[in-house]
Amino acid sequence: MSISAMSIDARPTVSAPDDDPYLWLEEIEGERALAWVERQNKQTLAKFGDARFAADRDTLAAIYDRPDNIPMVARRGTKLYNYWKDKTNPRGLWRCTTLESFRQSQPQWEVILDLDALATQEDEDWIWGGASTLPGQHRHAILRLSRGGSDAVVLREFDTVKREFVTGGFKLAEAKSSAQWLDVDTLLVASPLGEGMATRSGYARTARLWRRDTDFVNAPVVCETAIENMGLGAALDRTQKSETVWFTERLGFFDQTVSIGDRNGPRAKLDLPTDIEMDCSGDWLLLQRRTAWEIGGKQHPPDTLLATSLAGFLSGERSFTVLFEPGERRALQKFFWCRGHLILSILDELRPIFEMLKPPQAAHSVQTASPQTVSPQTASTGSSPTRSYWARTQLPGLPEIGVVHVWRFDTEEVESNGDLLAVVESPLTPSSFMLMEAAPGPAPVRSPVVLKQAPRTFTADELVVTRHEAISVDGERIPYTQVGPAGETGDAPVHMTGYGGFNLPTLPRYNSAIGKLWLERGGTSVTTNIRGGGEFGTRWHEAGRHAGKKLTHDDFAAVAADLVRRGVTRPNRIAAEGGSNGGILITNMLVRYPERFGALFCTVPLIDMRRYSKLLAGASWIAEYGDPDKPEEWNYLQTYSAYHMAEPGHPYPPILIATTRKDDRVHPGHARKMAAKLNAMGYEVSYYEPAAGGHGYGKDNKERAAFTALGLAFLREKIGWKPDIA
To answer: Do 571 and 691 meet the contact criterion of CB atoms below 8 Å apart?
Structure first.
C-alpha cells in the first residue's frame, strides 16, 4: 500500500468499526442524503443512460408488458383470480375469470379493481400487495396496498361483488400487518401498530381480535411475544372440526414455538423443539426438524419429515411415521396438503421430484396394501411399535430436468377438489403453465395439460445448457449451470449470479432480461448453487450460515476460477450480479477476490454487518448472520463486512451499487454508505437509487426494465464487451 493511499480516510475500519462518518446517509428522507442521491443518480445516468440503454430498457419493458405473457391464477371458490400489469395498466388490474374461459387463447376477464385509477383518484403511490378473501363466496376481501412497493401496507376491506371498498369497513393504517378472516365480522390481526406493539425487527408483537365497527386501538390482544423475538403470527386452520387457530412465535428466522387455540388465544403450547417446521391438516401433524432428533425411541437425521396424530401428540403419544429421509444431495424443498393428499417437492442432485402421499384413513391405523403403491415405515413409542402405511406415487408427466414448481390450485385447502398447478421451465425454454386435474382411481391426478405457454423472448438456437462443479477452498463440490454458445473461446463475456442464504435454492430459470440483453448477443450466463442456500437441505445451508458465510463467498469465487480453468473466459470478462443477501456476496467479491472479476452489480444490498441489526428488519436476520453486539460473533462478522474491510490501494473492479428508497426491508443506507466510502477512497463506483420499488427493481414494468438495463449496460461496458446488435 502506498503512502498516499494510507493517507486516505478509510473509515469505518475493522479496527474501528463504529467510527462511521457516513451515518447521515441512513436518514432515508434526510435533505442532505437525498441531495447526495440525486447527484449520484445524475452521474450514473449520464455515464450509462445512453441511447443503447434506452433501447434496451424499452425492449425489456415491451417483453414484461407482452399481452401473451402467462397470467398466473389462483382459484377462490368458482373463480380464477389474477393480478395483471402491462403498458396500459402499469400499476395493474385485479381481475377474475372462469376456468372454461381461461382455457381459451383470449380469456374474458372481469376487472375487480383498477389500481391505476385508484392511485389517481386518491393521489397515492399504490402498489398491489395481495388480498385475503373469506372462503365461501370470497366476496369479503382485505386488500394489502403498499406505498411505492414497501413491505408496510395499508389494509382495507373490499367487496368483490360490488367491486368497491366497504364504507365504514375494516381499514388499518400503514404497517407490516397481516389479517385473517375468522368470520364476516371478525378479523385476527397481527400488526406492529401501537406503542409497544412492534418487535425489535419491526414486525407484529401481538395478535388482536378485531370486530367490525370497533376501533382497532381497543381490539383485545389474544396473544403476544417478547419484543426481542422476530414476530408473532396467527393462522386459522379450517381443516379442523372446531375453530382452531395456530399461534406462532418466531424466536428467530429458523426457530419458533407453536401453540394451538382459538380466537380467544392459545390453549396449549406444543412440546416441540424450536428448530422445527410443522404443518397440520385434520388430525395429521407433520414435523420437520433442522437438527437430529431422538424421539419415540428412534434417532432421526436433520430434515426428516415425520407424521403423527395431532390428537395423539397432544395427549402425550410419540409414535411417528417417517415420510421423507434426506440424502447428502437429496433435500425436501416444501410439502403441502391438497384434498387429503400430501405433496412432497424434492430436489435430488438438483433434479425435481414430486411425490403424492395418501395417508391411512385414521392416524395409527393398520392397512393391508399393495407393495406397488405403498411405502411402509415403522415408528416406535418406546413400548409397542405401530405401523402406518401411506400410499406413495410420483406425480405423472412432469420432467426430471429443468425447473419445476407444483402447488395447489385452490387458495383454501378446504375448498380444494384435488387439482394442482405446475410451472415447468429451463434456461432456454420459457414457462409452461399446467393443470393437473384430480382423478379417481390409483392415480390421484391426471398428467399435466398445458393451459398457457409463455412466449420465447430471445433467440436461443445456438445456445446450450451444461452443468459443472467447481472445487471450493475446503474441497466441497459447488454445482453451477452454464448457458451460452457451445465450446470454449477463453474470452466469453460471462454474467454470474448467486445468492447463498436463508436456505433458499437458486435455480436456473428462464430469464428474459439475461436472455435478450446478454445471451442473444453472444454472452454466457452462469447460475451458482453456493452454500447457504437450500439446494441440498439444512447441511448446505448451515455450512454457509454465521461464520460459514465466508465459505459461501469462497464458493462463488471458486466458480469464477473454474470458468477460467476450463477455458471459458478470463477474469476481467466476468461480470457478477447479486442482490439482498447477495449484496454481501458481491461486495465480498470486491474486497476479497477482486482479481477474479471484471465488473460487479450489487442490488438492494445488505453490506454493513456492524449496524445491520439496528436498521429496519435487520434484527430478524441475526439467526442467519450473527449478532454484531456480541464480541465473539463480531469476530467472524467483521471478516465479511465489506463496508469495514474496504481499504484504499487495492485493484478493486468497477462496481455499480443500486437500491430503492422505498426498500423498508434492507435499509438503503447499506448501499449509500458503501458507495460513499468507495468513492472517497478513489475507487470506480457508480450508484443508482430510484424513489420507489421496495425490495425489488421497480414499482412497475418500466421501472424494473430501467433498473435491469442500466445494470447490464454498466457490466458490458466495464468488461469491455460491445456486442453488435442487429
So the answer is: no
Q: What grid cell was written down for 431?
A: 414457462
Find all residues with CB under 8 Å of 232, minimum gap 6, and list them.
190, 199, 203, 204, 205, 206, 207, 223, 224, 225, 247, 248, 249, 250
- 693 vs 704: CA distance, rounded Å: 8
Beta bridge partners of 354: 345
H-run or E-run covering 630: none
Are 376 and 428 in contact, with CB atoms under 8 Å apart? no
- Answer yes or no: are the C-beta atoms of 542 and 478 closer than 8 Å: no
Pairing between strand 255-262 and 321-324?
unpaired
In the chain the first and final C-alpha atoms are separated, in Å, by 46
pLDDT reported for residue 300: 97
3-state secondary structure of 358: strand
Nearest CA among 29, 20, 202, 37 for reference residue 611: 20
The string of DSSP codes covering 324-346 is E--BTTEEEEEEEEETTEEEEEE
Say what the pLDDT of residue 519 is: 98
Q: Would you tell me the crossing angle of helices 669-680 and 31-48 to the nearest 10 degrees?
A: 70
| 8-state DSSP, 652 | P
Residue 125: enclosing H or E segment and its boundaries? none
- Predicted pLDDT of residue 726: 59
Q: What is the C-alpha to C-alpha distance for residues 581 and 500, in angstroms, rounded to an integer?
A: 8
User: What pLDDT sits at residue 566?
Assistant: 98
Ranges assigned E (strand) in 74-135: 74-76, 79-84, 93-97, 110-114, 126-133
Which helix or strand (DSSP H or E) is residue 594 part of?
none
Strand runs labelled E in 176-230: 178-183, 186-190, 206-211, 221-224
How do beta strands 186-190 and 206-211 pair?
antiparallel
Q: From CA 6, how far away is CA 17, in angstroms rounded?
A: 17
The cell numbers describing 279, all together, are 404443518
Instruction: Quote the distance between the C-alpha of residue 72 and its chain's center.
Output: 17
The pTM for the full model equals 0.95
Amino acid at 599: A
Q: Which three cell numbers stand for residue 283?
A: 388430525
Contacts for 385-392: CB closer than 8 Å, 24+ residues apart: 386/319, 388/307, 388/321, 388/359, 388/360, 388/363, 388/364, 389/360, 390/307, 390/321, 390/323, 390/342, 390/357, 390/358, 390/359, 390/360, 391/357, 391/358, 392/355, 392/356, 392/357, 392/358
CA distance 349 to 330: 6
C-alpha distances in angstroms, 22 versus 16, 25, 602, 658?
14, 6, 19, 17
Give the whole-angstrom CA distance, residue 141 versus residue 164: 10
Weakly modelled stretches of the chain, pLDDT under 50: 1-6, 363-387
Closest CA to 109 of 163, 31, 158: 163
Cα–Cα distance, 59 to 705 (Å, whole number): 8
Give the closest residue to 338 by CA, choosing from 245, 411, 235, 246. 411
Q: How far is CA 66 from CA 60, 62, 384, 457, in A?
A: 10, 6, 62, 10
Q: What is the DSSP letter of 427?
A: T
Number of Cβ within a 10 Å radius of residue 636? 17
The b/e string for 523-542 (b: 16+ C-beta within 10 A; e otherwise) is bbbbbbbbbbbbbbbbbbbb
Q: Is the sign of the CA dihedral 57, 62, 65, 66 positive or negative?
A: negative
Bridge partner residues of 145 (DSSP):
128, 154
* Dihedral class, residue 91 (left if φ above 0, else alpha if ψ from -120 to 50, else beta): alpha
